[in-house]
UniProtKB/TrEMBL annotation:
InterPro entries membership: Metallo-B-lactamas (IPR001279), RibonucZ/Hydroxyglut_hydro (IPR036866)
Species this chain originates from: Micromonospora matsumotoense
PANTHER family in the cross-refs: METALLO-HYDROLASE YHFI-RELATED, ZINC PHOSPHODIESTERASE ELAC PROTEIN 1
Name of the featured protein: Ribonuclease BN, tRNA processing enzyme
SUPFAM superfamilies in the cross-refs: Metallo-hydrolase/oxidoreductase
Pfam families documented for this protein: Lactamase_B_2
Domain Metallo-beta-lactamase: 18-196
SMART domains referenced in this protein's UniProt entry, alphabetically: Lactamase_B
Lineage: Bacteria, Bacillati, Actinomycetota, Actinomycetes, Micromonosporales
GO molecular function, one term: 3'-tRNA processing endoribonuclease activity
Amino acid sequence: MRLTVLGCAGSFPGPESPCSAYLVEAQGFRLLVDFGPGSLSTLQRYAGLHAPDAILLSHLHCDHILDAASYVVVRRYAPDGPYPPLPVYAPPGAPDRLATAYGQDDSSVEDVYQFYGLRPGTFPIGPFTVTVDRVNHPVETYGVRLEHEGRVLCYSSDTAPCDALLRLAQDADVFLCEASYLDGVDNPPDLHLTGREAGETATKAGVGRLLLTHLVVAWGSEAHTLASAAGAFTGPLEVVRAGATYDI
Ligand SMILES: [Zn+2]
């Protein structure tokens, strides 16, 4: 598997990165996991305008989905289009949410996307075996475990600490984990992880490598988050950047 980070900024785009979007490739099949604001730009820079063979949206918060609305134009009105419907795996409500974001009163985006409603379980997408489960976030949110030929990538999506995340991350080769909050301040419960909590989850799950993402750059401190995570996880870890690639 190859992971390409198209965007990793938490909650809103940062000066150096769009919001969450991760392209995962195996056997020439490219699955786009989340499609946050700005990532349609980096999709073109690092992969290509029509690179995705399928999309998985972990939850319907705007910082994880809005460029899937922008992408309607790309598929529907391309000079060599329209393109056939693209599979989109997403929580229920995605068709209406994306149609509303697209912004036409009578619009549907179901000519562009073939939607599949997420529910906890395991299913195939292209060459991947995908397991999703509900994690601890205020809206219906799915953590994601992708397996291919014995290798495992786990993506936390947005979540506070929870058992489902531990199960999804168990023995993963790479754990792409959010670390939105700073340690040592009074954070609201049941929303996000700190660097320390990401590190603790990585240690409990026995992952090989921890990739920290979804830092809120404008309000945070990358050095602080990294140090907090390193205090709880002794394996290799880093904060990801837009354009970074990882062979898993
Ligand atoms: Zn969220």
